[in-house]
Amino acid sequence: MAELRDATARDLPAILAITNDAIATSEAIWATSPRTLEERRAWMETRQDAGHPVVVAVEDGTVLGFASYGPFRAYEGYALTVEHSVYVASSAQRRGIGRLLLDEMIARAEKAGMHVLIGAITASNVASIALHRNAGFSESSPLPHMGRKFGRWLDLVFMYRLFDTQSGEGSSDERHSSF
Ligand SMILES: CC(C)(COP(=O)(O)OP(=O)(O)OC[C@H]1O[C@@H](n2cnc3c(N)ncnc32)[C@H](O)[C@@H]1OP(=O)(O)O)[C@@H](O)C(=O)NCCC(=O)NCCS
Q1: How many CB atoms lie within 10 A of CB 75?
Q2: pLDDT tens digits, residue range 93-147?
Q3: Which segments constitute the N-acetyltransferase domain (predicted)?
Q4: Is 175 exposed, middle or buried (0-12, 13-18, 19+ CB in 10 A)?
Q5: Which amino acid residue places its CA nearest to atom 27 of ligand 1?
Q6: Is the CB–ligand 1 distance for residue 128 below 6 Å?
Q7: Is 121 in the pocket of ligand 1 (CB under 6 A)?
Q8: Domain count of the chain?
Protein backbone atom coordinates (compact mmCIF):
# COMPACT_ATOMS: atom_id res chain seq x y z
CA MET A 1 0.00 0.00 0.00
CA ALA A 2 1.27 3.44 -0.89
CA GLU A 3 2.26 5.81 1.88
CA LEU A 4 2.27 9.59 1.83
CA ARG A 5 5.08 11.91 2.79
CA ASP A 6 6.24 15.42 2.01
CA ALA A 7 8.23 15.58 -1.22
CA THR A 8 11.95 16.26 -1.27
CA ALA A 9 14.31 17.24 -4.07
CA ARG A 10 15.06 13.54 -4.62
CA ASP A 11 11.45 13.03 -5.73
CA LEU A 12 11.71 15.59 -8.53
CA PRO A 13 12.67 13.17 -11.36
CA ALA A 14 9.60 11.03 -10.59
CA ILE A 15 7.36 14.09 -10.29
CA LEU A 16 8.75 15.31 -13.62
CA ALA A 17 8.10 11.97 -15.32
CA ILE A 18 4.49 11.80 -14.08
CA THR A 19 3.88 15.42 -15.10
CA ASN A 20 5.35 14.98 -18.57
CA ASP A 21 3.42 11.76 -19.19
CA ALA A 22 0.17 13.61 -18.34
CA ILE A 23 1.20 16.49 -20.64
CA ALA A 24 1.98 14.14 -23.53
CA THR A 25 -1.00 11.80 -23.24
CA SER A 26 -3.92 13.57 -21.57
CA GLU A 27 -6.09 16.67 -21.51
CA ALA A 28 -5.76 16.84 -17.72
CA ILE A 29 -3.11 19.55 -17.96
CA TRP A 30 -3.35 22.11 -20.72
CA ALA A 31 0.39 22.35 -21.28
CA THR A 32 1.72 20.94 -24.52
CA SER A 33 5.49 21.15 -24.03
CA PRO A 34 7.34 19.02 -21.48
CA ARG A 35 8.43 20.57 -18.19
CA THR A 36 12.09 20.45 -17.11
CA LEU A 37 13.68 19.34 -13.87
CA GLU A 38 14.58 22.95 -13.12
CA GLU A 39 10.99 24.09 -13.67
CA ARG A 40 9.72 21.36 -11.32
CA ARG A 41 12.38 22.28 -8.76
CA ALA A 42 11.39 25.96 -8.85
CA TRP A 43 7.72 25.02 -8.60
CA MET A 44 8.32 22.79 -5.57
CA GLU A 45 10.53 25.30 -3.80
CA THR A 46 8.03 28.11 -4.36
CA ARG A 47 5.24 25.96 -2.90
CA GLN A 48 7.24 24.74 0.07
CA ASP A 49 8.76 28.16 0.85
CA ALA A 50 5.21 29.52 1.04
CA GLY A 51 4.27 26.75 3.49
CA HIS A 52 2.10 24.90 0.98
CA PRO A 53 2.25 21.11 0.68
CA VAL A 54 3.86 19.01 -2.01
CA VAL A 55 3.09 15.40 -1.09
CA VAL A 56 4.17 12.17 -2.77
CA ALA A 57 2.63 8.70 -2.63
CA VAL A 58 5.39 6.12 -2.35
CA GLU A 59 5.33 2.33 -2.56
CA ASP A 60 8.45 0.19 -2.21
CA GLY A 61 10.56 3.30 -2.68
CA THR A 62 8.86 4.32 -5.93
CA VAL A 63 6.91 7.57 -6.26
CA LEU A 64 3.54 6.66 -7.78
CA GLY A 65 1.81 10.02 -7.52
CA PHE A 66 1.89 13.50 -6.09
CA ALA A 67 -0.41 16.29 -5.02
CA SER A 68 -0.01 19.91 -4.10
CA TYR A 69 -1.92 23.11 -3.60
CA GLY A 70 -1.02 26.74 -3.97
CA PRO A 71 -2.58 30.16 -4.48
CA PHE A 72 -5.72 30.30 -6.63
CA ARG A 73 -5.24 33.95 -7.65
CA ALA A 74 -2.78 36.54 -6.41
CA TYR A 75 -5.09 39.21 -4.94
CA GLU A 76 -5.36 39.39 -1.15
CA GLY A 77 -9.06 38.58 -1.27
CA TYR A 78 -8.23 35.06 -2.44
CA ALA A 79 -5.85 34.41 0.46
CA LEU A 80 -8.00 31.62 1.92
CA THR A 81 -8.63 29.90 -1.42
CA VAL A 82 -6.11 27.36 -2.65
CA GLU A 83 -6.02 25.41 -5.92
CA HIS A 84 -4.87 21.82 -5.83
CA SER A 85 -3.68 19.22 -8.32
CA VAL A 86 -3.38 15.45 -8.06
CA TYR A 87 -1.42 13.20 -10.41
CA VAL A 88 -1.01 9.44 -10.32
CA ALA A 89 1.34 7.52 -12.64
CA SER A 90 -0.71 5.85 -15.35
CA SER A 91 0.62 2.43 -14.30
CA ALA A 92 -0.69 2.96 -10.75
CA GLN A 93 -4.11 4.44 -11.43
CA ARG A 94 -7.39 3.05 -10.07
CA ARG A 95 -5.75 1.66 -6.93
CA GLY A 96 -6.95 4.32 -4.51
CA ILE A 97 -3.82 6.50 -4.65
CA GLY A 98 -5.60 9.53 -6.14
CA ARG A 99 -8.16 9.41 -3.35
CA LEU A 100 -5.42 9.05 -0.74
CA LEU A 101 -3.65 12.13 -2.10
CA LEU A 102 -6.84 14.16 -2.45
CA ASP A 103 -7.89 13.35 1.12
CA GLU A 104 -4.46 14.57 2.25
CA MET A 105 -4.95 17.88 0.39
CA ILE A 106 -8.34 18.27 2.08
CA ALA A 107 -6.85 17.57 5.50
CA ARG A 108 -3.88 19.91 4.96
CA ALA A 109 -6.04 22.76 3.62
CA GLU A 110 -8.45 22.50 6.51
CA LYS A 111 -5.63 22.32 9.08
CA ALA A 112 -3.97 25.37 7.49
CA GLY A 113 -7.18 27.36 7.99
CA MET A 114 -8.04 27.62 4.31
CA HIS A 115 -11.66 28.28 3.42
CA VAL A 116 -11.87 26.86 -0.11
CA LEU A 117 -9.97 24.05 -1.84
CA ILE A 118 -10.62 24.25 -5.58
CA GLY A 119 -9.58 22.26 -8.62
CA ALA A 120 -9.80 23.41 -12.23
CA ILE A 121 -10.70 20.23 -14.11
CA THR A 122 -11.11 19.51 -17.80
CA ALA A 123 -14.79 18.70 -18.30
CA SER A 124 -13.91 15.53 -20.22
CA ASN A 125 -11.72 14.22 -17.39
CA VAL A 126 -14.15 11.55 -16.21
CA ALA A 127 -11.70 10.08 -13.69
CA SER A 128 -10.92 13.35 -11.95
CA ILE A 129 -14.54 14.49 -11.86
CA ALA A 130 -15.65 11.16 -10.35
CA LEU A 131 -12.77 11.28 -7.87
CA HIS A 132 -13.77 14.76 -6.68
CA ARG A 133 -17.51 14.00 -6.57
CA ASN A 134 -16.82 10.96 -4.42
CA ALA A 135 -14.69 13.10 -2.11
CA GLY A 136 -17.59 15.49 -1.52
CA PHE A 137 -16.64 18.33 -3.86
CA SER A 138 -19.30 20.58 -5.39
CA GLU A 139 -18.95 21.67 -8.99
CA SER A 140 -19.55 24.66 -11.20
CA SER A 141 -21.22 24.53 -14.58
CA PRO A 142 -18.69 23.80 -17.32
CA LEU A 143 -17.13 26.91 -18.80
CA PRO A 144 -17.03 26.29 -22.56
CA HIS A 145 -13.97 26.49 -24.79
CA MET A 146 -11.61 27.79 -22.11
CA GLY A 147 -8.62 26.30 -23.86
CA ARG A 148 -7.33 24.06 -26.62
CA LYS A 149 -5.27 20.91 -26.77
CA PHE A 150 -4.83 18.14 -29.35
CA GLY A 151 -6.66 20.31 -31.91
CA ARG A 152 -9.91 20.74 -30.02
CA TRP A 153 -11.61 23.06 -27.56
CA LEU A 154 -11.63 22.12 -23.89
CA ASP A 155 -14.30 23.00 -21.34
CA LEU A 156 -13.39 23.70 -17.71
CA VAL A 157 -15.17 22.74 -14.49
CA PHE A 158 -14.31 24.12 -11.07
CA MET A 159 -14.77 21.61 -8.25
CA TYR A 160 -14.54 22.94 -4.72
CA ARG A 161 -14.88 22.15 -1.04
CA LEU A 162 -15.60 24.75 1.59
CA PHE A 163 -14.33 24.51 5.15
CA ASP A 164 -15.96 26.08 8.15
CA THR A 165 -13.26 28.70 8.65
CA GLN A 166 -13.73 31.20 11.47
CA SER A 167 -11.66 33.96 9.89
CA GLY A 168 -14.30 35.02 7.34
CA GLU A 169 -16.71 37.84 8.10
CA GLY A 170 -20.43 37.37 8.76
CA SER A 171 -22.33 34.18 9.38
CA SER A 172 -21.50 30.88 7.77
CA ASP A 173 -24.55 31.16 5.50
CA GLU A 174 -23.58 34.67 4.39
CA ARG A 175 -20.07 33.53 3.61
CA HIS A 176 -21.27 30.60 1.54
CA SER A 177 -23.92 32.57 -0.32
CA SER A 178 -21.47 33.91 -2.88
CA PHE A 179 -21.28 30.38 -4.27
C1 LIG B 1 -7.63 11.52 -11.71
C2 LIG B 1 -6.60 10.64 -11.03
C3 LIG B 1 -5.74 11.50 -10.09
C4 LIG B 1 -7.33 9.59 -10.19
O5 LIG B 1 -6.34 8.86 -9.48
P6 LIG B 1 -6.52 7.28 -9.20
O7 LIG B 1 -5.47 6.89 -8.25
O8 LIG B 1 -6.58 6.55 -10.48
O9 LIG B 1 -7.96 7.26 -8.53
P10 LIG B 1 -8.45 6.28 -7.37
O11 LIG B 1 -8.04 4.88 -7.67
O12 LIG B 1 -8.08 6.85 -6.05
O13 LIG B 1 -10.02 6.38 -7.58
C14 LIG B 1 -10.86 7.07 -6.67
C15 LIG B 1 -12.22 7.22 -7.33
O16 LIG B 1 -12.14 8.09 -8.45
C17 LIG B 1 -13.00 7.62 -9.48
N18 LIG B 1 -12.22 7.24 -10.64
C19 LIG B 1 -10.87 7.14 -10.74
N20 LIG B 1 -10.51 6.80 -11.97
C21 LIG B 1 -11.64 6.68 -12.69
C22 LIG B 1 -11.92 6.38 -14.03
N23 LIG B 1 -10.92 6.11 -14.90
N24 LIG B 1 -13.20 6.37 -14.44
C25 LIG B 1 -14.20 6.64 -13.58
N26 LIG B 1 -14.00 6.94 -12.27
C27 LIG B 1 -12.74 6.96 -11.85
C28 LIG B 1 -13.73 6.44 -8.92
O29 LIG B 1 -14.91 6.91 -8.30
C30 LIG B 1 -12.76 5.92 -7.90
O31 LIG B 1 -13.34 5.19 -6.88
P32 LIG B 1 -13.57 3.59 -7.10
O33 LIG B 1 -12.29 3.05 -7.66
O34 LIG B 1 -13.89 3.12 -5.73
O35 LIG B 1 -14.70 3.49 -8.07
C36 LIG B 1 -5.72 9.89 -12.06
O37 LIG B 1 -6.57 9.27 -13.01
C38 LIG B 1 -4.74 10.78 -12.78
O39 LIG B 1 -3.68 11.08 -12.26
N40 LIG B 1 -5.10 11.19 -14.00
C41 LIG B 1 -4.20 12.02 -14.81
C42 LIG B 1 -4.00 13.38 -14.20
C43 LIG B 1 -5.30 14.02 -13.77
O44 LIG B 1 -6.30 13.95 -14.46
N45 LIG B 1 -5.22 14.68 -12.62
C46 LIG B 1 -6.33 15.45 -12.10
C47 LIG B 1 -6.22 16.83 -12.69
S48 LIG B 1 -7.51 17.86 -12.07
Answers
A1: 8
A2: 999 999 999 999 999 999 999 999 999 999 999 999 999 999 999 999 999 999 9
A3: 2-164
A4: middle
A5: 127
A6: yes
A7: yes
A8: 1
